[in-house]
């Protein structure tokens, strides 16, 4: 009797997870297996395997760029940005991905800073970001009560972001900072400040849409509905009716102004590895629950900010 409710919840969660694997991973991979000529003939033209990206727009609007993920704490890159970070880092997109972390995560104790800075490098390695492209700043104090000065952030970013041959793309939090975390919100205003003041007109800024409480902990439920409607609309409208209209329940808006990233099982496994093995010090018991239920681990909605 007492066990019935938890068991029911567990069953619903497991079922949703299995449905998600089918929608996000099995269907797209079967699609590649049966439609991709390179795979069918076992003759490959490119040096990258034709891995599916059916769950993110193809081609990705962020390509051949220097992408800077501007984060507040070591582990933000996994906990909030992993679907977009992993997709953008994929070799076929030709991006050069950097992580700029504004604190070393020493809010509990100063001695933690060294450990967490190193953990960020370990996590970056798992995510495919080279150590030389990871910057951890220590002049910003990590904490729930700390607001960081926007002009100071602008100055820090100008000294880190060098004008190279590739256009710069900045990715950071939105004005709600995922959970109203003042460090994240400061980064939004500081990065926006930098973006608006930079003379580099080829640069772009994307912000991560904060999800409300129910959406944040919706596990794979909402994603399943979106992917299901998306597969169905592509199948029915594209193949059966052969029409060129874009219907989607949630108006999947994949112009370059707004990009939705969905992880598949392979990408989610990388996120779990980066978090649990890279950021070992952060894996207290409740984190496991958060990692399993959080929608940010399988879904990112990046919105482009126009000047
Ligand atoms: C990115 O670079 C590759 C290789 O140079 C090129 O084939 C591709 O068209 C480029 N993509 C974009 C969007 O510029
Ligand atoms: C943050 O500020 C609140 C209210 O001023 C205070 O109660 C709390 O102890 C502070 N927390 C930290 C970590 O300093
Ligand atoms: C549907 O979306 C595709 C890709 O985003 C676009 O090329 C096409 O023009 C759209 N069709 C309509 C009718 O809006
Ligand atoms: C897509 O998003 C952009 C920017 O957020 C917006 O301007 C545009 O109206 C949206 N298009 C649709 C069809 O919702």
TrEMBL record:
The GO cellular component terms are:
endoplasmic reticulum; membrane
Domain of life of the organism in this record? Eukaryota
* EC annotation from Swiss-Prot or TrEMBL: 3.5.1.89
Q: What class of enzyme is it?
A: hydrolase
Tell me which Gene Ontology terms the entry assigns under biological process.
GPI anchor biosynthetic process
Output the Gene Ontology terms for molecular function.
N-acetylglucosaminylphosphatidylinositol deacetylase activity
InterPro entries reported in the protein's UniProt record: GlcNAc_PI_deacetylase-related (IPR003737), LmbE-like_dom_sf (IPR024078)
Family matches, as PANTHER family: N-ACETYLGLUCOSAMINYL-PHOSPHATIDYLINOSITOL DE-N-ACETYLASE, N-ACETYLGLUCOSAMINYL-PHOSPHATIDYLINOSITOL DE-N-ACETYLASE-RELATED
- Family per record: Belongs to the PIGL family.
What is the recorded name of this protein?
N-acetylglucosaminylphosphatidylinositol deacetylase
